[in-house]
Design goal:
Number of helices: 15
Low-confidence stretches: 357-361
Number of strands: 4
Distance between the termini: 50 Å
Number of domains: 2
Strand order of the largest sheet: 2-3-1-4
Length: about 350
């Protein structure tokens, strides 16, 4: 039973866990998009070049001109879809991948049928190569391969002479089986590499103690925020009060728990992609295109929630409108930090806070 489950996992999810595959989907879409961009351009250029050459030729090559033209137009449409539609609709990439492969399979079968007296070569070549270009479940790629093999065998039986047809059918079935096993093996390697790449990226971008984005990712994304908002951008700067004192009084584990709780509350309020730990006790979050009143209300609620846990955090707030399509990120963060220091100064101006900033556990 365990063996069958492992085989099914290999066939269905390329050997990765189902949950891990879902996490990999954005990377799968991205990889397929890049591959499809390249090969749709190459295919369109080749088909149009073949059309021009065949249109200017005489004899048999001239007969192929309409086929090359139709395939070239389809590839051109695919190319435009990949460049202009998939950035906004990434899930569309897989549909275009299968359209791309279907065109190649149909073309290979059609060309093979033109030489009724000779064994098929084009169809077998596309059968072996096409499924290995992209990323997807082996079960889906193999299902498409099976449909192509069945369709090819039926058409060959109807069009070619029995002796040639028999050779083509056995070749197609044999190489179809080879293609299925090759697809399973290659997809396993591809998805394992993709999973490892995602883990490396996660570790390079994430603060492992708190689970929010780290300073490295913060520095890299700073210049992207002007492009992520259309009207304004709000920065929230938080500094934990009393971390040093808590580490001394109750140990570093207690300090770690406090940072984790604060990070979790901020992440729930402002999102995983917009919350960063940029220092030992400093956090920054961004909110694109929102009303200042709404964000202030959320900061008040967040401050109350943190206080109820026995912790205190000083929050600074700053907003910048996107005038003439520009935002000064450094100035925005600096203003939020300065406002945080004002709140922190007010907090420590109270005698009870200077003596004890945290509830003792």
């Amino acid at each position: 039973m365990k063996f069958l489950k492992k085989v099914w996992n290999l066939f269905a999810y390329a050997g990765v866990d189902k949950k891990e595959y879902r996490k990999l989907l954005p990377s799968v879409y991205k990889e397929n998009q890049q591959i499809l961009k390249v090969f749709s351009v190459i295919a369109a250029v080749i088909f149009f070049a073949l059309f021009v050459v065949s249109a200017l030729s005489k004899g048999f090559a001239n007969v192929n001109a309409p086929t090359y033209l139709v395939c070239g137009v389809i590839m051109l449409v695919l190319m435009l879809c990949v460049f202009f539609l998939t950035p906004k609709h990434p899930s569309l990439v897989l549909v275009l991948v299968y359209v791309f492969e279907t065109v190649l399979y149909v073309f290979g079968i059609f060309v093979s049928m033109l030489h009724a007296e000779k064994p098929a070569v084009s169809a077998v070549a596309f059968l072996l190569v096409s499924p290995l270009l992209f990323y997807d479940f082996p079960v889906r790629l193999s299902s498409q391969l099976s449909i192509v093999v069945v369709a090819f065998c039926i058409i060959v039986k109807l069009v070619k002479e029995p002796e040639v047809a028999s050779t083509d059918i056995w070749n197609m079935i044999t190489f179809g089986i080879v293609a299925v096993f090759a697809t399973i093996f290659i997809m396993q390697i591809k998805f394992r590499a993709l999973s490892q790449s995602r883990q490396i990226e996660y570790m390079s971008q994430t603060d492992l103690l708190t689970g929010v984005k780290n300073r490295n990712h913060y520095e890299n994304r700073m210049q992207e925020y002007p492009e992520l908002c259309s009207s304004n951008l709000i920065c929230i700067y938080g500094d934990v009060n009393g971390l040093h004192e808590l580490n001394i009084q109750e140990g570093h584990l207690a300090g770690d728990i406090m940072l984790q709780k604060v990070a979790e509350i901020m992440r729930l309020r402002f999102g995983e992609e917009h919350t960063y730990r940029i220092g030992g006790d400093e956090f920054v979050a961004f909110r694109p295109d929102d009303r200042p009143e709404q964000v202030k209300s959320e900061i008040d609620g967040m401050d109350k929630e943190i206080t109820e846990l026995g912790y205190r955090v000083s929050f600074g707030f700053a907003e910048q409108s996107k005038e003439n399509g520009k935002l000064d990120m450094s100035e925005l963060v600096k203003e939020a930090e300065e406002n945080m220091f004002l709140v922190k100064k007010e907090f420590y101006s109270k005698p009870e806070n200077r003596k004890k900033t945290l509830r003792m556990h």
